[in-house]
Amino acid sequence: MTYCCAIKVNDGLIFAGDTRTSAGVDDVRTYNKVHVFEFPGDRVFVLLSAGNLATTQAVIAQIRRDLDEPIVPMSLRLARYMYDAAEYVGMLSVNAQKTVSSQTQYSSVDLRTTFILGGQIQGEEPSIYMIYPEGNCIASSPETPFLQIGEHKYGKPILDRVIKPEVSLEDAARCALVSIDSTMRSNISVGPPIDLAVVPKDALQVTHKLRLDIDTPLFARIRDAWGRQLAASFRNLPKFDWEAPPVQGNLLDDEAPAA
Amino acid sequence: MTYCCAIKVNDGLIFAGDTRTSAGVDDVRTYNKVHVFEFPGDRVFVLLSAGNLATTQAVIAQIRRDLDEPIVPMSLRLARYMYDAAEYVGMLSVNAQKTVSSQTQYSSVDLRTTFILGGQIQGEEPSIYMIYPEGNCIASSPETPFLQIGEHKYGKPILDRVIKPEVSLEDAARCALVSIDSTMRSNISVGPPIDLAVVPKDALQVTHKLRLDIDTPLFARIRDAWGRQLAASFRNLPKFDWEAPPVQGNLLDDEAPAA
Protein backbone atom coordinates (compact mmCIF):
# COMPACT_ATOMS: atom_id res chain seq x y z
CA MET A 1 0.00 0.00 0.00
CA THR A 2 0.96 3.64 -0.22
CA TYR A 3 -0.23 6.99 0.95
CA CYS A 4 0.63 10.18 -0.93
CA CYS A 5 -1.00 13.60 -0.88
CA ALA A 6 -0.60 16.86 -2.73
CA ILE A 7 -1.87 20.18 -1.42
CA LYS A 8 -2.46 23.41 -3.31
CA VAL A 9 -2.58 26.61 -1.27
CA ASN A 10 -2.30 30.20 -2.41
CA ASP A 11 1.45 30.23 -1.69
CA GLY A 12 2.25 27.10 -3.70
CA LEU A 13 2.24 23.31 -3.63
CA ILE A 14 3.16 20.61 -1.13
CA PHE A 15 3.82 16.98 -2.03
CA ALA A 16 4.29 14.18 0.46
CA GLY A 17 4.44 10.43 0.34
CA ASP A 18 5.48 7.42 2.34
CA THR A 19 8.08 5.02 0.93
CA ARG A 20 6.75 1.56 1.75
CA THR A 21 6.10 -0.85 -1.08
CA SER A 22 4.76 -4.28 -0.39
CA ALA A 23 3.82 -7.28 -2.45
CA GLY A 24 2.37 -8.96 0.62
CA VAL A 25 3.50 -8.55 4.22
CA ASP A 26 6.49 -10.83 3.55
CA ASP A 27 7.84 -8.66 0.73
CA VAL A 28 8.23 -5.12 2.00
CA ARG A 29 10.62 -2.62 0.43
CA THR A 30 11.36 1.08 0.46
CA TYR A 31 10.84 3.08 -2.74
CA ASN A 32 10.71 6.74 -3.50
CA LYS A 33 7.20 7.70 -4.62
CA VAL A 34 7.88 11.44 -4.95
CA HIS A 35 9.49 12.02 -8.34
CA VAL A 36 10.78 15.49 -9.23
CA PHE A 37 11.25 16.84 -12.78
CA GLU A 38 12.78 20.32 -12.66
CA PHE A 39 13.46 22.81 -15.42
CA PRO A 40 14.46 25.75 -13.19
CA GLY A 41 13.04 29.08 -14.26
CA ASP A 42 10.72 27.45 -16.80
CA ARG A 43 8.71 24.66 -15.20
CA VAL A 44 8.66 22.13 -12.39
CA PHE A 45 6.73 18.89 -11.95
CA VAL A 46 6.33 16.51 -9.03
CA LEU A 47 4.81 13.10 -9.70
CA LEU A 48 3.37 10.91 -6.91
CA SER A 49 2.40 7.29 -7.53
CA ALA A 50 0.30 4.60 -5.86
CA GLY A 51 -0.30 1.20 -7.35
CA ASN A 52 1.68 -1.25 -9.45
CA LEU A 53 5.39 -0.49 -9.03
CA ALA A 54 6.36 -1.84 -12.44
CA THR A 55 3.78 0.37 -14.15
CA THR A 56 5.08 3.35 -12.16
CA GLN A 57 8.67 2.66 -13.18
CA ALA A 58 7.69 2.15 -16.81
CA VAL A 59 5.99 5.57 -16.80
CA ILE A 60 8.94 7.29 -15.11
CA ALA A 61 11.37 5.67 -17.55
CA GLN A 62 9.32 6.81 -20.54
CA ILE A 63 9.06 10.36 -19.17
CA ARG A 64 12.89 10.44 -18.92
CA ARG A 65 13.31 8.87 -22.38
CA ASP A 66 11.02 11.50 -23.92
CA LEU A 67 12.99 14.26 -22.20
CA ASP A 68 16.26 12.95 -23.66
CA GLU A 69 14.97 12.59 -27.22
CA PRO A 70 15.53 15.67 -29.39
CA ILE A 71 12.31 15.16 -31.37
CA VAL A 72 9.20 13.79 -29.68
CA PRO A 73 5.52 14.67 -30.10
CA MET A 74 5.13 15.32 -26.36
CA SER A 75 7.16 15.50 -23.17
CA LEU A 76 7.05 17.27 -19.84
CA ARG A 77 9.26 19.96 -21.41
CA LEU A 78 6.88 20.48 -24.36
CA ALA A 79 3.54 20.54 -22.50
CA ARG A 80 1.85 23.91 -22.95
CA TYR A 81 -0.52 23.52 -20.00
CA MET A 82 -0.44 21.44 -16.83
CA TYR A 83 -3.51 19.63 -18.11
CA ASP A 84 -1.56 18.53 -21.19
CA ALA A 85 1.19 17.19 -18.97
CA ALA A 86 -1.37 15.27 -16.90
CA GLU A 87 -2.96 13.78 -20.03
CA TYR A 88 0.51 12.83 -21.28
CA VAL A 89 1.29 10.94 -18.05
CA GLY A 90 -2.13 9.28 -18.29
CA MET A 91 -1.34 8.11 -21.82
CA LEU A 92 2.03 6.70 -20.71
CA SER A 93 0.28 4.89 -17.84
CA VAL A 94 -2.34 3.31 -20.10
CA ASN A 95 0.38 2.30 -22.60
CA ALA A 96 2.50 0.72 -19.86
CA GLN A 97 -0.47 -1.32 -18.63
CA LYS A 98 -1.42 -2.34 -22.18
CA THR A 99 2.08 -3.52 -23.03
CA VAL A 100 2.29 -5.77 -20.00
CA SER A 101 -1.27 -7.09 -20.15
CA SER A 102 -0.88 -8.00 -23.83
CA GLN A 103 2.12 -10.11 -22.83
CA THR A 104 0.44 -11.72 -19.83
CA GLN A 105 -3.20 -11.96 -20.70
CA TYR A 106 -3.87 -14.83 -18.33
CA SER A 107 -2.42 -13.12 -15.27
CA SER A 108 -4.60 -11.62 -12.58
CA VAL A 109 -1.97 -9.12 -11.42
CA ASP A 110 -3.40 -5.64 -10.93
CA LEU A 111 -1.33 -3.40 -13.19
CA ARG A 112 -3.12 -0.18 -12.31
CA THR A 113 -1.36 2.85 -10.89
CA THR A 114 -2.90 6.15 -9.85
CA PHE A 115 -0.71 9.25 -10.13
CA ILE A 116 -0.81 12.78 -8.83
CA LEU A 117 1.00 15.25 -11.07
CA GLY A 118 1.53 18.75 -9.78
CA GLY A 119 3.73 21.70 -10.54
CA GLN A 120 3.83 24.92 -12.46
CA ILE A 121 4.62 26.00 -16.00
CA GLN A 122 5.87 29.58 -16.40
CA GLY A 123 2.92 31.91 -17.04
CA GLU A 124 0.42 29.38 -15.64
CA GLU A 125 -0.97 28.91 -12.15
CA PRO A 126 0.44 26.07 -10.02
CA SER A 127 -1.90 23.09 -10.10
CA ILE A 128 -2.31 19.47 -9.06
CA TYR A 129 -4.01 16.66 -11.01
CA MET A 130 -5.05 13.15 -10.08
CA ILE A 131 -4.47 10.76 -13.00
CA TYR A 132 -6.57 7.62 -12.90
CA PRO A 133 -5.34 4.23 -14.16
CA GLU A 134 -7.70 4.74 -17.13
CA GLY A 135 -5.60 7.73 -18.18
CA ASN A 136 -8.17 10.44 -17.48
CA CYS A 137 -7.59 13.07 -14.82
CA ILE A 138 -9.13 15.61 -12.46
CA ALA A 139 -7.76 18.78 -10.85
CA SER A 140 -8.20 19.82 -7.24
CA SER A 141 -10.90 22.37 -6.42
CA PRO A 142 -10.78 25.56 -4.33
CA GLU A 143 -13.19 23.88 -1.89
CA THR A 144 -11.03 20.76 -1.57
CA PRO A 145 -7.53 21.97 -2.39
CA PHE A 146 -5.81 18.64 -1.94
CA LEU A 147 -5.62 15.24 -3.64
CA GLN A 148 -4.77 11.87 -2.11
CA ILE A 149 -3.84 8.48 -3.53
CA GLY A 150 -3.50 5.08 -1.91
CA GLU A 151 -4.67 4.51 1.68
CA HIS A 152 -6.35 7.90 1.93
CA LYS A 153 -9.08 7.61 4.56
CA TYR A 154 -7.11 7.75 7.81
CA GLY A 155 -5.30 10.92 6.77
CA LYS A 156 -8.24 12.79 5.25
CA PRO A 157 -10.00 14.28 8.32
CA ILE A 158 -7.00 16.40 9.32
CA LEU A 159 -6.65 17.71 5.75
CA ASP A 160 -10.41 18.42 5.65
CA ARG A 161 -10.21 20.45 8.83
CA VAL A 162 -6.98 22.36 8.25
CA ILE A 163 -6.28 22.86 4.55
CA LYS A 164 -7.75 26.00 3.03
CA PRO A 165 -6.23 28.10 0.24
CA GLU A 166 -5.04 30.76 2.70
CA VAL A 167 -3.05 28.31 4.90
CA SER A 168 0.71 28.96 4.73
CA LEU A 169 2.89 26.64 2.69
CA GLU A 170 4.71 25.47 5.82
CA ASP A 171 1.49 24.80 7.75
CA ALA A 172 0.28 22.81 4.75
CA ALA A 173 3.54 20.84 4.85
CA ARG A 174 3.13 20.13 8.57
CA CYS A 175 -0.47 19.08 7.94
CA ALA A 176 0.71 16.65 5.24
CA LEU A 177 3.22 15.17 7.71
CA VAL A 178 0.54 14.78 10.40
CA SER A 179 -1.81 13.23 7.81
CA ILE A 180 0.83 10.64 6.84
CA ASP A 181 1.75 10.06 10.49
CA SER A 182 -1.92 9.32 11.29
CA THR A 183 -2.04 6.88 8.39
CA MET A 184 1.17 5.11 9.42
CA ARG A 185 -0.22 4.58 12.91
CA SER A 186 -3.32 2.87 11.50
CA ASN A 187 -1.97 0.93 8.51
CA ILE A 188 1.43 -0.76 8.66
CA SER A 189 1.53 -1.02 4.89
CA VAL A 190 2.16 2.74 4.91
CA GLY A 191 5.62 3.32 6.36
CA PRO A 192 8.53 5.66 6.91
CA PRO A 193 10.62 7.45 5.82
CA ILE A 194 8.40 10.21 4.46
CA ASP A 195 9.37 12.31 1.46
CA LEU A 196 8.29 15.94 1.37
CA ALA A 197 8.67 18.42 -1.51
CA VAL A 198 7.88 22.13 -1.34
CA VAL A 199 7.14 24.10 -4.54
CA PRO A 200 6.42 27.78 -3.77
CA LYS A 201 4.31 29.66 -6.28
CA ASP A 202 6.40 31.12 -9.13
CA ALA A 203 9.64 29.58 -7.80
CA LEU A 204 9.50 27.16 -10.74
CA GLN A 205 11.60 24.70 -8.76
CA VAL A 206 11.45 22.47 -5.70
CA THR A 207 12.90 24.72 -3.00
CA HIS A 208 12.94 22.06 -0.28
CA LYS A 209 12.98 18.29 -0.52
CA LEU A 210 13.22 16.43 2.76
CA ARG A 211 13.35 12.78 3.70
CA LEU A 212 12.05 12.40 7.24
CA ASP A 213 12.38 9.22 9.25
CA ILE A 214 10.63 8.50 12.54
CA ASP A 215 13.74 9.59 14.44
CA THR A 216 14.61 12.62 12.29
CA PRO A 217 14.60 15.39 14.96
CA LEU A 218 12.11 17.68 13.20
CA PHE A 219 9.63 14.89 12.48
CA ALA A 220 10.01 13.40 15.96
CA ARG A 221 9.29 16.83 17.47
CA ILE A 222 6.27 17.44 15.22
CA ARG A 223 4.84 14.02 16.15
CA ASP A 224 5.43 14.66 19.82
CA ALA A 225 4.09 18.23 19.82
CA TRP A 226 1.02 17.21 17.85
CA GLY A 227 0.20 14.42 20.29
CA ARG A 228 0.57 16.74 23.28
CA GLN A 229 -1.48 19.52 21.72
CA LEU A 230 -4.31 17.19 20.70
CA ALA A 231 -4.50 15.95 24.28
CA ALA A 232 -4.53 19.55 25.54
CA SER A 233 -7.26 20.41 23.03
CA PHE A 234 -9.46 17.69 24.48
CA ARG A 235 -9.04 19.07 27.98
CA ASN A 236 -10.33 22.40 26.67
CA LEU A 237 -13.45 21.19 24.88
CA PRO A 238 -16.90 22.25 26.21
CA LYS A 239 -18.09 20.16 29.14
CA PHE A 240 -21.20 18.03 29.46
CA ASP A 241 -23.72 19.56 31.86
CA TRP A 242 -23.19 16.83 34.46
CA GLU A 243 -19.46 17.50 34.71
CA ALA A 244 -17.74 19.63 37.33
CA PRO A 245 -17.25 23.22 36.13
CA PRO A 246 -14.12 23.82 34.07
CA VAL A 247 -10.93 24.26 36.06
CA GLN A 248 -9.31 27.69 36.25
CA GLY A 249 -7.24 28.53 33.23
CA ASN A 250 -9.54 26.70 30.86
CA LEU A 251 -9.26 28.34 27.45
CA LEU A 252 -13.03 28.27 27.10
CA ASP A 253 -13.80 29.94 30.46
CA ASP A 254 -15.40 32.82 28.64
CA GLU A 255 -17.99 30.58 27.02
CA ALA A 256 -21.39 29.89 28.49
CA PRO A 257 -21.66 26.63 30.44
CA ALA A 258 -22.67 23.63 28.36
CA ALA A 259 -26.40 23.68 27.70
CA MET B 1 -23.30 3.06 5.76
CA THR B 2 -22.84 3.51 9.46
CA TYR B 3 -20.20 4.46 11.94
CA CYS B 4 -20.36 3.34 15.57
CA CYS B 5 -17.67 3.09 18.21
CA ALA B 6 -17.39 1.82 21.76
CA ILE B 7 -14.65 2.87 24.15
CA LYS B 8 -13.52 1.20 27.35
CA VAL B 9 -11.61 3.33 29.84
CA ASN B 10 -10.89 2.71 33.52
CA ASP B 11 -13.94 4.76 34.54
CA GLY B 12 -16.42 2.92 32.33
CA LEU B 13 -17.77 2.60 28.81
CA ILE B 14 -18.80 5.02 26.07
CA PHE B 15 -21.00 4.09 23.10
CA ALA B 16 -21.67 6.33 20.12
CA GLY B 17 -23.22 5.94 16.72
CA ASP B 18 -24.62 7.89 13.82
CA THR B 19 -28.23 7.31 12.74
CA ARG B 20 -28.09 7.29 8.95
CA THR B 21 -29.27 4.22 7.11
CA SER B 22 -29.14 4.05 3.35
CA ALA B 23 -30.04 1.54 0.71
CA GLY B 24 -28.44 3.70 -1.96
CA VAL B 25 -28.16 7.49 -1.97
CA ASP B 26 -31.82 7.77 -2.99
CA ASP B 27 -33.10 5.84 0.04
CA VAL B 28 -31.76 7.47 3.17
CA ARG B 29 -33.43 7.11 6.56
CA THR B 30 -32.70 7.74 10.21
CA TYR B 31 -32.50 4.76 12.58
CA ASN B 32 -31.28 4.34 16.08
CA LYS B 33 -28.19 2.10 16.13
CA VAL B 34 -27.50 2.38 19.87
CA HIS B 35 -29.75 -0.11 21.64
CA VAL B 36 -29.87 -0.16 25.45
CA PHE B 37 -30.89 -3.12 27.61
CA GLU B 38 -30.89 -2.16 31.28
CA PHE B 39 -31.46 -4.23 34.40
CA PRO B 40 -30.55 -1.54 36.94
CA GLY B 41 -28.42 -2.74 39.81
CA ASP B 42 -27.79 -6.10 38.12
CA ARG B 43 -26.54 -5.61 34.56
CA VAL B 44 -26.55 -3.25 31.61
CA PHE B 45 -25.91 -3.84 27.91
CA VAL B 46 -25.54 -1.50 24.96
CA LEU B 47 -25.68 -2.99 21.47
CA LEU B 48 -24.35 -1.13 18.39
CA SER B 49 -25.04 -2.39 14.88
CA ALA B 50 -23.67 -1.87 11.37
CA GLY B 51 -24.86 -3.76 8.34
CA ASN B 52 -28.15 -5.18 7.14
CA LEU B 53 -30.97 -3.36 8.94
CA ALA B 54 -33.39 -6.30 8.72
CA THR B 55 -30.84 -8.63 10.33
CA THR B 56 -30.26 -6.03 13.05
CA GLN B 57 -33.97 -5.71 13.77
CA ALA B 58 -34.45 -9.50 13.76
CA VAL B 59 -31.71 -9.81 16.38
CA ILE B 60 -33.12 -7.00 18.55
CA ALA B 61 -36.61 -8.52 18.33
CA GLN B 62 -35.30 -11.93 19.38
CA ILE B 63 -33.36 -10.44 22.29
CA ARG B 64 -36.59 -8.80 23.52
CA ARG B 65 -38.62 -11.97 22.94
CA ASP B 66 -36.13 -14.01 24.98
CA LEU B 67 -36.32 -11.44 27.80
CA ASP B 68 -40.11 -11.70 27.91
CA GLU B 69 -40.23 -15.51 27.94
CA PRO B 70 -40.25 -17.04 31.43
CA ILE B 71 -38.24 -20.10 30.36
CA VAL B 72 -35.48 -19.82 27.76
CA PRO B 73 -32.07 -21.48 27.52
CA MET B 74 -30.32 -18.09 27.20
CA SER B 75 -31.05 -14.37 27.31
CA LEU B 76 -29.25 -11.16 28.22
CA ARG B 77 -30.66 -11.57 31.72
CA LEU B 78 -29.32 -15.11 32.08
CA ALA B 79 -25.80 -14.62 30.69
CA ARG B 80 -23.22 -15.35 33.37
CA TYR B 81 -20.35 -13.53 31.64
CA MET B 82 -20.21 -10.75 29.06
CA TYR B 83 -18.58 -13.23 26.70
CA ASP B 84 -21.65 -15.48 26.95
CA ALA B 85 -23.88 -12.52 26.10
CA ALA B 86 -21.70 -11.72 23.07
CA GLU B 87 -21.83 -15.34 21.88
CA TYR B 88 -25.60 -15.31 22.34
CA VAL B 89 -25.98 -12.20 20.16
CA GLY B 90 -23.66 -13.82 17.59
CA MET B 91 -25.88 -16.90 17.52
CA LEU B 92 -29.01 -14.78 17.04
CA SER B 93 -27.27 -12.93 14.20
CA VAL B 94 -26.26 -16.13 12.40
CA ASN B 95 -29.79 -17.52 12.85
CA ALA B 96 -31.38 -14.35 11.47
CA GLN B 97 -29.15 -14.48 8.38
CA LYS B 98 -29.79 -18.22 7.91
CA THR B 99 -33.56 -17.83 8.10
CA VAL B 100 -33.62 -15.14 5.43
CA SER B 101 -31.04 -16.69 3.13
CA SER B 102 -32.84 -20.05 3.18
CA GLN B 103 -35.96 -18.21 1.96
CA THR B 104 -34.12 -16.21 -0.70
CA GLN B 105 -31.30 -18.37 -1.89
CA TYR B 106 -31.04 -16.66 -5.27
CA SER B 107 -30.73 -13.13 -3.88
CA SER B 108 -27.43 -11.32 -3.74
CA VAL B 109 -28.46 -9.05 -0.87
CA ASP B 110 -25.78 -8.80 1.81
CA LEU B 111 -27.46 -9.95 5.01
CA ARG B 112 -24.44 -9.50 7.25
CA THR B 113 -24.43 -7.27 10.30
CA THR B 114 -21.55 -6.59 12.66
CA PHE B 115 -22.39 -5.76 16.26
CA ILE B 116 -20.61 -4.28 19.22
CA LEU B 117 -21.98 -5.46 22.55
CA GLY B 118 -20.74 -3.75 25.70
CA GLY B 119 -21.83 -3.40 29.25
CA GLN B 120 -21.32 -4.83 32.68
CA ILE B 121 -22.72 -7.71 34.69
CA GLN B 122 -22.60 -7.29 38.48
CA GLY B 123 -19.37 -8.74 39.86
CA GLU B 124 -17.68 -8.62 36.43
CA GLU B 125 -15.55 -5.94 34.81
CA PRO B 126 -17.18 -3.71 32.18
CA SER B 127 -16.24 -4.91 28.70
CA ILE B 128 -16.89 -4.44 24.98
CA TYR B 129 -17.04 -7.11 22.28
CA MET B 130 -17.15 -6.96 18.50
CA ILE B 131 -19.44 -9.66 17.11
CA TYR B 132 -18.73 -10.63 13.51
CA PRO B 133 -21.44 -11.65 11.04
CA GLU B 134 -20.11 -15.20 11.41
CA GLY B 135 -21.18 -15.14 15.05
CA ASN B 136 -17.72 -15.19 16.61
CA CYS B 137 -16.42 -12.29 18.65
CA ILE B 138 -13.41 -10.44 20.01
CA ALA B 139 -12.94 -8.17 23.03
CA SER B 140 -11.05 -4.87 23.07
CA SER B 141 -7.49 -4.88 24.42
CA PRO B 142 -5.75 -2.61 26.95
CA GLU B 143 -3.51 -1.38 24.11
CA THR B 144 -6.47 -0.56 21.83
CA PRO B 145 -9.32 0.06 24.24
CA PHE B 146 -11.93 0.78 21.60
CA LEU B 147 -13.87 -1.03 18.88
CA GLN B 148 -15.37 0.40 15.70
CA ILE B 149 -17.88 -0.89 13.16
CA GLY B 150 -18.95 0.45 9.77
CA GLU B 151 -17.01 3.28 8.11
CA HIS B 152 -14.21 3.19 10.65
CA LYS B 153 -11.11 4.59 8.97
CA TYR B 154 -11.78 8.34 9.00
CA GLY B 155 -12.50 8.34 12.72
CA LYS B 156 -9.72 6.01 13.86
CA PRO B 157 -6.67 8.33 14.04
CA ILE B 158 -8.21 10.56 16.73
CA LEU B 159 -9.14 7.51 18.81
CA ASP B 160 -5.62 6.09 18.31
CA ARG B 161 -4.06 9.31 19.56
CA VAL B 162 -6.37 10.13 22.47
CA ILE B 163 -7.94 7.01 23.94
CA LYS B 164 -5.97 5.36 26.73
CA PRO B 165 -7.38 3.52 29.76
CA GLU B 166 -6.68 6.49 32.04
CA VAL B 167 -8.65 9.03 29.93
CA SER B 168 -11.76 10.31 31.75
CA LEU B 169 -15.15 9.00 30.73
CA GLU B 170 -16.21 12.46 29.53
CA ASP B 171 -13.03 13.01 27.49
CA ALA B 172 -13.63 9.61 25.92
CA ALA B 173 -17.19 10.70 25.10
CA ARG B 174 -15.93 13.94 23.51
CA CYS B 175 -13.38 11.93 21.53
CA ALA B 176 -16.13 9.65 20.25
CA LEU B 177 -18.12 12.73 19.14
CA VAL B 178 -15.08 14.19 17.34
CA SER B 179 -14.39 10.80 15.74
CA ILE B 180 -17.95 10.63 14.39
CA ASP B 181 -17.85 14.28 13.34
CA SER B 182 -14.66 13.62 11.33
CA THR B 183 -16.35 10.66 9.67
CA MET B 184 -19.50 12.63 8.81
CA ARG B 185 -17.39 15.31 7.13
CA SER B 186 -15.75 12.71 4.87
CA ASN B 187 -18.57 10.27 4.16
CA ILE B 188 -22.13 11.53 3.64
CA SER B 189 -23.50 8.05 4.21
CA VAL B 190 -22.65 8.62 7.88
CA GLY B 191 -25.00 11.31 9.20
CA PRO B 192 -26.53 13.07 12.18
CA PRO B 193 -28.03 12.99 14.71
CA ILE B 194 -25.50 11.17 16.87
CA ASP B 195 -26.50 8.94 19.76
CA LEU B 196 -24.25 8.79 22.79
CA ALA B 197 -24.54 6.49 25.82
CA VAL B 198 -22.44 6.69 28.97
CA VAL B 199 -22.05 3.66 31.27
CA PRO B 200 -19.85 4.44 34.27
CA LYS B 201 -18.07 1.51 35.89
CA ASP B 202 -20.25 -0.22 38.51
CA ALA B 203 -23.24 2.05 37.81
CA LEU B 204 -24.94 -0.96 36.18
CA GLN B 205 -27.06 1.43 34.12
CA VAL B 206 -26.78 4.01 31.35
CA THR B 207 -26.38 7.24 33.31
CA HIS B 208 -26.57 9.53 30.26
CA LYS B 209 -28.06 8.97 26.85
CA LEU B 210 -27.94 11.93 24.50
CA ARG B 211 -29.12 12.51 20.95
CA LEU B 212 -27.01 15.28 19.44
CA ASP B 213 -27.85 16.97 16.17
CA ILE B 214 -25.57 19.32 14.23
CA ASP B 215 -27.31 22.32 15.83
CA THR B 216 -27.61 20.91 19.34
CA PRO B 217 -25.75 23.62 21.32
CA LEU B 218 -23.28 21.30 23.05
CA PHE B 219 -22.35 19.46 19.86
CA ALA B 220 -22.15 22.68 17.85
CA ARG B 221 -19.80 24.13 20.46
CA ILE B 222 -17.64 20.99 20.57
CA ARG B 223 -17.35 21.02 16.76
CA ASP B 224 -16.48 24.69 16.73
CA ALA B 225 -14.01 24.53 19.62
CA TRP B 226 -12.30 21.48 18.14
CA GLY B 227 -11.84 23.18 14.78
CA ARG B 228 -10.36 26.28 16.38
CA GLN B 229 -8.04 24.33 18.65
CA LEU B 230 -6.75 22.15 15.82
CA ALA B 231 -5.91 25.27 13.85
CA ALA B 232 -4.17 26.74 16.90
CA SER B 233 -2.25 23.51 17.39
CA PHE B 234 -0.87 23.78 13.86
CA ARG B 235 0.37 27.29 14.52
CA ASN B 236 2.31 25.92 17.48
CA LEU B 237 4.04 22.99 15.78
CA PRO B 238 7.85 23.03 15.41
CA LYS B 239 9.04 25.12 12.46
CA PHE B 240 11.11 24.07 9.45
CA ASP B 241 14.62 25.51 9.57
CA TRP B 242 13.94 27.86 6.64
CA GLU B 243 11.01 29.54 8.38
CA ALA B 244 11.09 32.77 10.36
CA PRO B 245 11.56 32.18 14.10
CA PRO B 246 8.36 31.51 16.04
CA VAL B 247 6.37 34.59 17.01
CA GLN B 248 6.25 35.65 20.65
CA GLY B 249 3.77 33.69 22.71
CA ASN B 250 4.42 30.47 20.83
CA LEU B 251 3.66 27.60 23.19
CA LEU B 252 6.85 25.88 22.09
CA ASP B 253 9.14 28.85 22.71
CA ASP B 254 10.98 26.84 25.30
CA GLU B 255 12.00 24.23 22.75
CA ALA B 256 15.18 24.32 20.78
CA PRO B 257 14.81 25.77 17.29
CA ALA B 258 14.00 23.23 14.59
CA ALA B 259 17.08 21.27 13.60
TrEMBL record, chains A, B:
One Pfam family cited in the UniProt record for this chain: Proteasome
InterPro entries listed in its UniProt record: Ntn_hydrolases_N (IPR029055), Proteasome_sua/b (IPR001353), UCP009120_prtse (IPR016545)
Gene Ontology cellular-component annotations: proteasome core complex
Domain of life: Bacteria
Signal sequence residues: none
GO BP annotations listed: proteolysis involved in protein catabolic process
Protein name: Peptidase
